[in-house]
Amino acid sequence: MGQLRAITAVALAMAWMPVGVAVRNGLDLVPPMGWSNWENSGCNINETYMKANAQALKDKGLFDLGYTIVEVDDCWAELDRNASGYLVANATRFPSGMASLGDFIHNLGMKFGMYSSAGVHCCQHTMPGSLGYEWLDAQFFAASGVDFLKYDGCFMEEFAQVEQDAPHRFPFTPPPILRYPIMGQALNKTGRPISYMCNFPWSFWLLHQDQADGGRWVSEVCNSWRVAGDPQPGFGQAMGYANSLSQYSVDVPSGPGGWATLDAIEIGNNMSFDVLTGEEAAAAGTRQALRLGGGGMTPDQEKAAISVYMIAKTPIFIGADVTQLSGHSLDAYSNADLIAIHQDPLGAPGQKINVNGSTAIWACALSGGRAAAVLLNTGNSPMDITVQWSDLDILPTPTSQSCSQQRASGSDVRKVTDVWKHKDVGQFDGSYTATAVAPDAAVVIVVGAKNT
After folding, report:
1. What is the largest CA-CA distance in the chain?
2. Among 103, 230, 331, 412, which one carries the catalytic annotation?
3. Are 245 and 260 in contact (CB under 8 A)?
4. Which one, 63, 83, 167, 323, has the greatest CB density within 10 A?
5. What tens digit of pLDDT does each residue of 282-323 get?
6. Among the options 74, 137, 152, 263, which is catalytic?
7. Cα–Cα dist 234/297, whole Å
8. How far apart, in whole angstroms, are the C-alpha atoms of residue 221 and residue 239?
9. What is the pTM of this model?
10. Which residues does 84 contact at the CB level (< 8 Å), separation at least 6?
11. 73 catalytic, yes or no?
């Protein structure tokens, strides 16, 4: 039965595969936002914990700001399927079942996210993967009321093994690069709109000599696709992950319906297997320890990290326990003006447009001829950072090569709004300079259209 199911899945996926078009499920025209449990609890989950965090999103105003997805990650199912081949919720962790959890989340007005993997097992080896069961599992997800699926890439044996070494249970399973399309088509065939996040597909497009050709398929199949490793706490870690977007964004650009994702962001979360010990942190110095991943960020670091993630238009998933989220960490997630940049209907992803030593500028085009910029200082001393309007005028958009016309001769005065100060700071001709930007901090501005 498994062999027949796998062969059928390959044939149907190849027959229905879209060619040269973005995924056609009509979802995620702007990057999705929500909360995931993995970075804050791992396998230590249950329905009480999930419900408490969903309620906290509502109670702390985060749902109203756009954080609408509640995603349960690995370890939610029993190790064995039932006699009919369907996944079964872990009886200890989720005694009421996954559909019941979905009902609770939907009753709050939120969207329900779940997790699986394209291999024999999921990553923690505590539950089955969907390999060979894509059609059954897609039906299970739809019946459970799932609105978002995170599909991981663990236990893909054929990625490193020849055909005769593959598991005997699935001797004709598709190669890994086809497994994401198969699940995508299975989800679409359920008739339920399910946003589809493909976790770790870049491992496959790196096998191609032409990375653009090797990775183009993700925007045809996935609503979002992972381009960095598992998140860890710390400002240096966050900036490293953001730089991963630059590595892949040229070959596989984001835009409405498909977004490069860094998974969860670690603001407010101090849990990690890789954090420094207290003695190591003291020896390295507090700020340096935080930059290296020592379990948290300063308020300035949190603002800088969320600013870069938001302007880059990566999907934003809170990686902290929302029930414990407060103070400057909660404030970092709650900047409505910054979220408006992230959710701008133009859907133009941000990119790094200027690097000068320890300073960098990330920028994106916005609707109405506007633009946004993050003026970032990762150095050890305050720095002046200048952004030129001419650099903003050539930012790419989803529908054209640049966001504006050639600059006219003469003055070019534009209004500048400071996103963290929530106020207009004046009219500026040709450029804007943020003065004395603190170490590990950023100034975020929205620049008005020409002649406004």
Report:
1. 75
2. 230
3. yes
4. 63
5. 444 443 434 433 457 999 999 999 999 999 999 999 999 999
6. 152
7. 6
8. 28
9. 0.86
10. none
11. no
